[in-house]
Amino acid sequence: MKTAVCPGSFDPITKGHIDIITRAAKLFDQVIILISVNYDKKYSFTSEERCDMVRASVSHLPNVTVDHFDGLLADYVREKKACAIVKGLRAVSDFEYEFQMALANKKLYDGAETVFLTTQGENMYLSSSLVKQIASFGGDISHFVPPQALEAIEKRLRRYTPGIKE
Ligand code: PNS
Q1: pTM of the predicted model, to two decimals?
Q2: Catalytic residue among 23, 59, 128, 158, which?
Q3: Quick one: which of 1, 56, 69, 51 has its CA closest to 31?
């Protein structure tokens, strides 16, 4: 049984994440989406809220589960006996940071490999930060996020109602 962990902030989940998760689910017997913490980031959603949105968005994938963990990713991967950490790579700008994390995780736990899946061209520009910015202005984010998470994201992030005042 080959298990992969797909970690991230998922603040919030996007269709880019769904693409990577769907493809990972075809490569491994089991995929655990891990809602993790990066203390350098200020989150808009609690880990429970992020878990709920991700869970609702991947319920159609039978070999995918969702979990959260506030500790080191390497410790979680060891505990679950996973053989891979799956990350999506969008552009060259992602690479340096992801490469650094992959090397550090390998040093912390040698039993798993980081596997990078390149994002589809249509999702190259997509990020959670972009979604948050558009949603805060009341823009249409339905192209960017899974339908199951749309309402929760719009409700939390909208700060401005579109419409030109005369
Ligand atoms: O979606 P993100 O914010 O790019 O994901 C980064 C994340 C949360 C996966 C990364 O910060 C992480 O692995 N956090 C858990 C703590 C940890 O292990 N940090 C050291 C990584 S080398």
Answers
A1: 0.95
A2: 128
A3: 1
